[in-house]
Known about the structure:
Layout: H1 2-30, H2 35-55, H3 62-84, H4 86-90, H5 98-118, H6 121-136, H7 151-159, H8 168-189, H9 192-204, H10 210-222, H11 229-246, H12 251-263, H13 274-283, H14 287-316, H15 329-336, H16 341-351, H17 356-370, H18 381-415, H19 417-429, H20 433-447, H21 453-463, H22 465-470, H23 475-488, H24 497-506, H25 510-520, H26 522-533, H27 543-565, H28 574-588, H29 592-610, H30 626-629
Helix pairs in contact: 1-2, 1-8, 1-18, 2-3, 2-5, 2-8, 2-18, 3-5, 5-6, 5-7, 5-18, 6-18, 8-13, 8-17, 8-18, 9-10, 9-15, 10-11, 10-12, 10-14, 11-12, 11-24, 12-24, 12-25, 13-14, 13-21, 13-23, 14-26, 14-27, 16-17, 18-21, 19-20, 20-21, 20-23, 21-23, 23-26, 24-25, 25-26, 27-28, 28-29
Amino acid sequence: MNKIICKAAQVLHMIAALCLSCFALYTAFTGIKVDSVQRGVVLALVLILVFSKEISREDRKWPLKLLFFLIMVAGVVSSLYQVFNYKKLAVSLGAITSAELVIGILLIVALLTATKVRVGWPIVIISGLFMVYAYAGKYLTGMAAHRGYSITRIVAHLWNGTNGIFGTPLGTASGMVIMFILFGTFLEASGGAAFFMDLAIALTGKSVGGPAKAAVVSSALMGTISGNAASNVVTTGTFTIPLMKKTGYQSHVAGAVEAVASTGGQIMPPVMGAAAFIMAEIMGVSYGSIALAAIIPALLYYLSVFLMVHLEARKYDLGRMDDKEIPQLKETWKKNWHTLVPVVVLIGALVSGFSTIRSALYGVIAAFVCSWFREHTRITPKKLYQVLVDGADGVVTVVIACACAGIIIGCVSLTGLGLKLSSLIIAASGGHMIIALILTFIALFILGMGMPTAAAYIMVATLVAPGLVDMGLTKMAAHMFCLYGAVLSAITPPVALAAYAASGIAKANPMRIGFTACKFGLVAFIVPFMFAYEPALLGDGTVPTVALALVTASLGTIVLATGLQGFFLGRMAWIQRGLAVIGALTLMYPGLVTDLIGLGCAILALAPQLFRKKPEATTESAAGTPEKRTK
């Protein structure tokens, strides 16, 4: 009996996945449906995907399976009620009947249960606390107090309309995000991921620390089609982490390099993570403007990570890859160049003014057509079925997290908490921008623990970004700062999703991987503070201003990496490291005087090594054999 139930659940999961992918492609071609219809259908199908997968597990007891089935039915019925009654609900002015109150409560219960199963407890607990706050405000004192709302009013606000569960985050996830995840799935199936990996290894494999550099380059390239840290780790890390270990990297170091490299994919244009699409909707700007603003920060991120990896390899004299393991660049290009065509089509469509959803659709079509250029990349009917199923599975976590984040946003808008928190941040910082930015970063790290980037960004962008704008940041800088901090939470212990994903491949402690990833990404943690003080790094300014900001920021990134690693052409004395760090930070701070001071400090720190006859040799134990370095 249990096997029959499991099999039936698997079939249901397959049907729901195919329906979700086909619905996304259909609406991308014909046009997005009315908000309640589009979002209701997607949420209903995602709830089926979540609970059918749990029911199909053989280790689940039948009472729990029955409970999951009942919750799934309740959630689906409640979501589809929106679809079939959207006209009636649109003119109800937020009022709901007793039956609709029950339906709304059932959806909230189903959503929170699905979120716990798929995402974890953190966002469920936070959502619950916000609902309690909306109800109990009249019992509080001080700035936190408000009039308090009845359960009926809270449920009506969260379920009926687009202020809560069916709000902007779910709308973005049910349209743009699904299409771009499908694009990435099609591109990967057509050989794009393999081509990026081979290309990265061909370019970096012969240099010192080649596998680590290949991890950085391939993860940056994969970021253009994935936009998800954990999936980047699993995709590229399966190959790069064993290679790094083979050439002498310790297990936790190999995992950390892959984790920090994969994390940057969420801010890597042209296809960034789901949070970037939500950011465009919240700000009310085009996705193209977000991608353009992210170019320089993304380049600085990967420049810093690449330099930290390079200096680590030089410092410990880590080995190179064998020639037989390195694919030929010319042969790699000749064999798989066609997998780049969909990316070109996507960028061309975005630049030409097509909507993001239509651009992603053209990219999907191009990936499918181009896959037939070579026999080894063809998306056959059997492969197409798997691509559609994988694409639907890939969007589940984002949709669930965004719908649950809608509960938080709904409670914030109902109680006016956002304005209060913005005022609190301004007051706590004493009007000092740097303190406000540090407090925001701390909030992002706390909220990002075990939570998808999109959900962490939504909460902070809703609660904190307005306060940063009030303090003088541009709207783009404030939201990009929040996005950056949410992205970096993927490698920040104690709950670092990218580090946990890497630990399974590297066979190392995830906490140790997380702390080591923070070391390699330490320069990257400073990048958001750079563009907060210098909006030109987001493309905000004249061409000469942007160019000067890019040059000084790049020099600062290079010098800071040498200071943190304590290595340039050879080992650096502590006074040299101190001068390098001071010089880097002043180079990063905008202004001619600070640039000149930073340049002077950098010259004092690095120039002595330029006049050495021979670079200092390293003889530490970590530079020994691979066996010694992995102990």
